[in-house]
């Protein structure tokens, strides 16, 4: 048997490029679908929808925030989020937050009930007839949590993530309830990379060593450690202040002034830096 001819190098490369291009298009299409949801601030009508268990239910809560959890039965990511959100629902329902699961009317009832039961989540499941709500809110992928404020406007649109999905949803709710600040919410949504956290820990460790050595009047070693602290994280005013104090104790006012000035740029209320700058004579 004669083996079929192998494609030439040029043809093989062309095929690989086509494959990569198609893959990129698929990823881009998925990203666009995820981003094409209704904008934050969009009003959501508090309509009645059929309940999976029978009867009808209000989409939104009466006077508090609401979370609409769009999911699909027999889907791994939806099952993961249902299980993860069980604790979130239990904790936040006590604060007057209403959670509703939203499924398409094409979803098999038995499969939905099985996934909800397996997750151990206390969730009212509403059925979206004709996928009208899906279309109105631009839900294209599963699972998605739409957080709606007490003003019945979208406050956040949380798409699936493998980690911290419940944590981010809870942070949005706590922000709406006034329990955390916007800066605290942002830190949950976009936490510092591991490298930044590691650098901060290194900076704190060297700062502590530098402070102890400075107090023991071991100025050369103190200077070495505070320099390492600033190399790891130069955003902390106390480290610059200590840097200035060490230089001043060594009789080096020029670098001390620079250090105190930098500390005051980062923290205008740093009294030690202000006093150090005054002693060294601001020029």
Output the structural class. Answer: alpha/beta
- How do the SSEs run, as a string of H and E? HEEEHEHEHEEHHHHHHH
Using the alpha-carbon principal axes, give the shape.
elongated
N-to-C terminal Cα separation, in Å? 90 Å
Radius of gyration: 28 Å
As a percent range, the share of helical residues equals 40-55%
Low-pLDDT runs of 5+ residues are 1-8, 12-35
Strand content: 5-15%
Average pLDDT, to the nearest integer?
84
Query: Within the largest sheet, what's the order of strands?
Result: 5-4-3-6-7
DSSP, total strands = 7
State the major sheet: 5 strands, mixed
Tally of individual helices: 11
What does this structure look like?
With 283 residues, the protein is α/β, with parallel strands linked by helices. It is 55% helix and 12% strand. It has 11 helices and 7 strands. The termini are far apart. Helix 5 runs antiparallel to helix 6, helix 8 packs antiparallel against helix 9 and helix 9 runs parallel beside helix 11. Strands 5-4-3-6-7 form a 5-stranded mixed sheet. It has a two-stranded antiparallel ribbon with strand order 1-2. Helix 2 links the parallel strand 3 and strand 4.
């Amino acid at each position: 048997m004669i083996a079929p001819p192998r494609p030439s190098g040029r043809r093989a490369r062309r095929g690989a490029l086509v494959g990569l291009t198609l893959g990129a298009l698929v990823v881009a299409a998925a990203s666009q679908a995820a981003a094409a949801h209704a904008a934050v601030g969009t009003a959501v009508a508090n309509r009645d929808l059929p309940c999976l268990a029978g009867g009808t239910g209000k989409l939104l809560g009466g006077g508090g925030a609401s979370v609409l959890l769009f999911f699909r039965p027999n889907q791994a990511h939806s099952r993961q989020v249902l299980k993860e959100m069980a604790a979130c629902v239990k904790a936040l329902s006590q604060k007057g937050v209403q959670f509703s699961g939203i499924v398409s009317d094409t979803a098999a009832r038995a499969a939905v009930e099985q996934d909800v039961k397996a997750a151990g989540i206390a969730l009212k499941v509403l059925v979206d007839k004709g996928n009208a709500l899906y279309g109105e809110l631009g839900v294209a992928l599963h699972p998605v949590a739409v957080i709606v404020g007490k003003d019945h406007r979208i406050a956040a649109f949380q798409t699936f993530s493998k980690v911290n999905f419940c944590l981010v949803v809870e942070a949005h709710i706590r922000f709406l309830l006034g329990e955390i600040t916007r800066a605290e919410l942002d830190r949950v949504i976009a936490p510092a990379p591991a490298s930044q956290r590691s650098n901060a820990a290194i900076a704190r460790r060297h700062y502590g060593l530098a402070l102890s050595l400075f107090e023991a009047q071991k100025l050369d070693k103190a200077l070495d450690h505070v320099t390492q602290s600033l190399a790891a994280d130069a955003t902390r005013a106390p480290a610059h202040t200590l840097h200035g104090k060490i230089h001043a104790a060594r009789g080096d006012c020029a670098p001390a002034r620079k250090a105190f000035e930098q500390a005051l740029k980062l923290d205008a209320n740093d009294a030690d830096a202000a006093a150090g700058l005054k002693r060294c004579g601001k020029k």
